[in-house]
Write a structure and sequence with these properties.
Shape: globular
Radius of gyration: 18 Å
Order of helices and strands: EHEHEHEEHEHEEHHEEHHHHH
Oligomer: single chain
Number of strands: 10
Number of helices: 12
Strand content: 15-25%
Length: 282
């Protein structure tokens, strides 16, 4: 069975992190390599990570943001597959096996993600279906049975939960760290994967609870301000033809960008993880 490196960022929010980790431990049979990247927590989160066995911990003295933190974690990953998972999620029975099945269904698929509650519309289930945490496992199990193998190709994926092969990093690199502290780095990553010849898949039979904006709330950060600032950076990078407020409020079509970029040009599209991007042989 292949090894999956699970990269999780934290910046305070200890209760959310503990709840997430417990759910992963409870519902995952596949071998995992845990990589925790902490962005300057002061609430006992570091002590929590240190109390766990076999966790690679990267402790930053300050907040390096979502993109840089994930890049740090991915640089340390030794698994054949990489799973980026937000600490404000709660996973469900057979979640990882479901994501694996989705990734393996088509060799052209580069990244897969689940459906959830608090997430962008493309991966969001109807509000009327949102289960309480008490009924989460039962809801996810029923959904997995009723929609086994179902899903769709997406124009982008949200970074709260992404599974991909390590080889993808060799092809497109990591997250673009200009999108600090968070927002739009997952859009950018998705678009570069598509320009690089890979497709994105939403696994409709895998449901994961997402608190949504958990790190922003835990640290009293202005989510809307960050999103608008990064929308401006994204607009400038990809020449969307829309203003930042238009993009942030009304959205944009990622496929329009991909259509204008028929070839992956490393000098333009590759984003190094750090000193170098690791190969699968390292």
């Amino acid at each position: 069975m292949p090894l999956t490196s699970i990269v999780m960022l934290t910046r305070n929010g200890l209760d959310l992190t503990r709840r997430c980790v417990e759910s992963v431990m409870r519902h995952t049979e596949e071998p995992l390599e845990w990589i925790a990247v902490d962005n300057g927590s002061t609430d006992g989160t570091l002590e929590f990570w240190n109390s766990m066995e076999d966790v690679k911990l990267i402790a930053n003295a300050e907040n390096r943001g979502f993109a840089a933190g994930n890049n740090q974690g991915m640089l340390e990953a030794s698994g054949d597959f990489i799973l980026l998972l937000n600490n404000d999620t709660v996973v469900t029975p057979r979640w990882l096996s479901g994501l694996y099945a989705a990734l393996f269904r088509d060799p052209d698929i580069g990244i897969v993600g689940p459906v959830s509650n608090h997430v962008a519309p493309i991966q969001r289930v109807p509000h009327a279906e949102w289960p309480t945490l008490e009924h989460l496992d039962a809801y996810a199990a029923r959904r997995q049975q009723e929609q086994a193998g179902s899903g769709f190709y997406a124009h982008k994926l949200v970074g709260f939960c992404m599974l991909f092969h390590r080889r993808l990093l060799e092809r497109i690199g990591g997250f673009d760290e200009r999108f600090f502290p968070g927002n739009y780095e997952d859009d950018d990553f998705s678009i570069r994967a598509r320009i690089g010849g890979k497709r994105l898949w939403v696994a409709q039979d895998v449901f994961i609870h997402h608190e949504g904006q958990g790190t922003f709330a835990s640290n009293r950060l202005d989510y809307k301000r960050s999103s608008l600032a990064n929308a401006e950076k994204f607009r400038a990078k990809w020449s969307t033809g829309l203003s930042a407020p238009e993009m942030d409020c009304l959205g944009y079509n990622p496929s329009d960008i991909v259509a204008r970029e028929p070839f992956f040009i490393p000098e333009k599209h590759f984003v190094p993880l750090g000193d170098h991007t690791p190969s699968r042989n390292e």
